[in-house]
Structures are given as structure tokens and as C-alpha cells.
Design goal:
By secondary structure, the chain is of the alpha/beta class. The protein folds into two domains: 3-174 and 362-379, Glycogen Phosphorylase B (Rossmann fold), CATH 3.40.50.2000; 186-358, Glycogen Phosphorylase B (Rossmann fold, 3-Layer(aba) Sandwich), CATH 3.40.50. The chain is built from 17 helices and 13 strands. The protein has a seven-stranded parallel sheet with strand order 3-2-1-4-5-6-7, sandwiched between helices. The protein has a six-stranded parallel sheet with strand order 10-9-8-11-12-13, with helices on both faces. The model has no long low-confidence stretch (mean pLDDT 96).
């Protein structure tokens, strides 16, 4: 194995979730295999700030992302190939974000992060759902090997599309444990509280882009129920940028008269996350479906327990460091909120178990899983 091209586009275009996973995996793998001919490329114009996020110089395409998507995926054009922009034959081309660009590489590897669009079609914009329903199955058929972020997503691929188990490798996300660890500096914690308007009030932290699949409406309803029936007084802080179909989230806060008790922090930069996790009583993550659940592992690494849904990959991410609830049962979510708000002993138990669990998720381990997946692809 020598020449490996990686689509680094999500790593520079997406600051949360998938982008952070791709950055972490590729940085770690390039560092452990510097002798190989790595060719990282991104679709469209690359700014100096984006280029600085890559471990190596980035190749780019002359057309912007919108036009390359139209050419490669909507029109299904077989040319130009990845090799056109990265130069020369390839042993492996790794498409990192659901869709496979045309390539003549010996083996084409495709990462499928989740099948949310399949299970929750109403949770995405209709145009995006139609697009994914065409290009993702087509990309899966054309790829030689599939990477899944979790064992749960690997099972979904087998059950929904009959992808053979031997064509799938699980490559999990991870945490930078030098950065994501308990923050005990009171000045740093108070600075964060003041910056976001939290001040001295204890709070529950929820983190995800604002979109239906993240289940914020039920979380807000459950929080309102916990306040009314069990005197929960913690503030609910929701961090995350606006995704799509988010109007109902803001409307629910207004209709329940929670404007003084639910704080929307907007997109939270990665540098602020360790202090945010550490300052919170717990992380609330009752998502309807996930491919990995990165915030759960990060929160546990910072010593903060989690209230998580019991679906998809979330028990993999949370292990013994989370209290699990049915994401579609508002009463059960409310009961979980009450338990974690009022039972300090439970929080301490989850804190200890969760830190030990999160310690397993390192970028070195993730890079080793990715390398084995490349080897599996070439040997198939």
C-alpha cells in the first residue's frame, strides 16, 4: 500500500460532529504512517484557515462544492475522477462522508456515519432526503469496503441494505484526552458562565445542531414537567447552531413559558466544550438516532454524567456512564432529569464509571481501526 487519497472536505467544512471525527482520525493516522503517499483533497475553494486544519497540504477542485456535487452525484458523471485532482494512480480512495466520488483507485472505501435519513425521513429537508436516498445506496454498492462509526450503524447496514459483514469495518470516533478532561479552574469556569449568561445557576447542558432528530422538543417538554412536578431548578442550556426545521424548538420554549429557564447558547466552539461539560450537572442527549454520539464520550471524559436515549449507538458511546431513557417518552425523560438533578450519589457513580469508559476512546485506537479497515479493503 502506498498512495492513499482522502476526501478531507467535511473536516474543513464541518466544525462539529462528522468534521471533528474525520479531523481526529486522519491526523492520527497520518502521524502514525508518515512514510505513505497521502493525498488529502477538499472540494471547492480552501481558505488559509481551513488549510491550517489539515495535517498535510490540501489539493482542491476548480469547481465549488455545489457544482461538484451536481456533477459527481446528481448527474452521476464519471469524470473528472479523484485522481484528476490528486495526481497519479491510487491504492485507496477514502470517501469520508456518505457519498463516493468517481475514482480508479484499486479499492474505494466509503464512510457511512449513520442511516438517519432512512429511519427518520421527516427529520430532514425533503430535497436532502431525496438526494441521500439516491446517492448513498448507489455509493454503498460501488464501494469496495464500508466504514461505520459504530457497531449499531454496521448492523443497520446489514439489516437495511444487506451489506455483507465482511464488507464493513467499524471505525469509532474518539476524544483528545489532553483537551477533554475535567476543568477544575474556577476562574475558567466562571468566565465561561459569564460569557454565555449562565452566571452562578446550576445547569443541564444539551449539545447538538438544532434539528428534529435531536429531539429537543421532547427534551424541553420533559424539562418543563420536571420543573412543575419535582421542583427541578437547574437552567437548561442548549448549545448548537441552527440546522433545519428548528422553529418548533423555539416555539415550544415560548408556549411553555420557559424563556427565563432555557438558554440557547448558539454554536459552541470546540475550545469552550471542556469547560461547558465540566460546569454542567449533566449532559442531556435524548436523540432519536445517532451514528456515534461524540458529545456523550466527550462529556464522560470531562467527568460529567449523561442522560442518553437507549437507542442506536448511544449505549455504545455512554456505556456505564449514562442513565438511559426512551427518547419518545416525555415522562421517562422527565424522570431521568429529576434523578440526575437531585441524586448527587448517582451522578458520582456515573462520573467514575463514565471516565473509565471514555478512556478507551483515543484517536490512536481510532487510527488503528482505520488502518485495519484499509488493509481489509485491499485484501478483499
Amino acid at each position: 500500500m502506498n498512495a492513499i487519497a482522502v476526501d478531507y472536505t467535511p473536516a474543513i467544512r464541518q466544525q462539529a460532529g462528522i468534521g471533528r471525527i474525520i479531523r481526529g482520525q486522519i491526523h492520527a493516522l497520518v502521524a502514525t504512517r508518515p512514510e505513505l503517499d497521502w493525498r488529502l483533497f477538499a472540494v471547492g475553494r480552501i481558505t488559509p484557515q481551513q488549510a491550517a486544519q489539515a495535517p498535510l497540504p490540501l489539493h482542491s477542485t476548480p469547481l465549488d462544492e455545489r457544482n461538484m456535487v451536481r456533477l459527481w452525484h446528481r448527474l452521476d458523471a464519471p469524470w473528472p475522477t479523484v485522481e484528476t485532482f490528486t495526481g497519479g494512480p491510487l491504492d485507496i480512495f477514502h470517501a469520508t462522508d456518505f457519498v463516493l466520488a468517481p475514482s480508479r483507485a484499486k479499492r474505494k472505501v466509503l464512510t457511512i456515519h449513520d442511516l438517519a435519513f432512512l429511519f427518520y425521513p421527516d427529520a430532514s429537508l425533503p430535497s436532502l432526503h431525496r438526494y441521500l436516498n439516491v446517492v448513498v445506496p448507489r455509493s454503498v454498492r460501488r464501494a469496495d469496503h464500508i466504514l461505520a462509526d459504530s457497531h449499531s450503524t454496521a448492523r443497520d447496514l446489514q439489516e437495511q441494505w444487506s451489506v455483507p459483514a465482511e464488507r464493513i469495518s467499524v471505525v469509532q470516533g474518539a476524544v483528545d484526552h489532553e483537551r477533554f478532561r475535567p476543568v477544575t479552574d474556577e476562574d475558567r469556569l466562571q468566565t465561561l458562565r459569564d460569557r454565555y449568561g449562565i452566571h452562578d445557576r446550576p445547569f443541564i447542558f444539551a449539545l447538538s445542531s438544532l434539528q428534529p432528530r435531536k429531539n429537543f422538543v421532547r427534551l424541553i417538554e420533559a424539562y418543563s414537567l420536571a420543573r412543575r412536578e419535582r421542583d427541578v431548578d437547574q437552567l437548561l442550556v442548549i448549545g448548537g447552531g441552527k440546522g433545519w426545521l428548528y422553529d418548533e424548538i423555539f416555539a415550544k420554549v415560548r408556549s411553555l413559558d420557559l424563556d427565563k429557564h432555557v438558554l440557547f447558547a448558539g454554536f459552541v466552539p470546540e475550545d469552550d466544550l471542556p469547560a461547558f461539560y465540566s460546569a454542567a450537572d449533566f449532559l442531556a442527549y435524548p436523540s432519536l438516532y445517532e451514528g456515534f454520539g461524540l458529545p456523550i464520550v466527550e462529556s464522560l471524559a470531562c467527568g460529567t454524567p449523561v442522560l442518553a436515549a437507549n437507542n442506536s449507538c448511544l449505549p455504545e458511546a455512554g456505556g456505564p456512564g449514562a442513565l438511559y431513557v426512551n427518547a419518545e417518552d416525555v415522562q421517562e425523560i422527565a424522570q431521568g432529569i429529576v434523578r440526575l438533578c437531585q441524586d448527587a450519589g448517582l451522578r458520582q457513580t456515573l462520573h467514575l464509571a463514565g471516565q473509565a469508559h471514555a478512556a478507551r476512546f483515543t484517536w490512536q485506537r481510532s487510527a488503528e481501526q482505520l488502518w485495519r479497515a484499509y488493509e481489509n479493503a485491499l485484501s478483499s
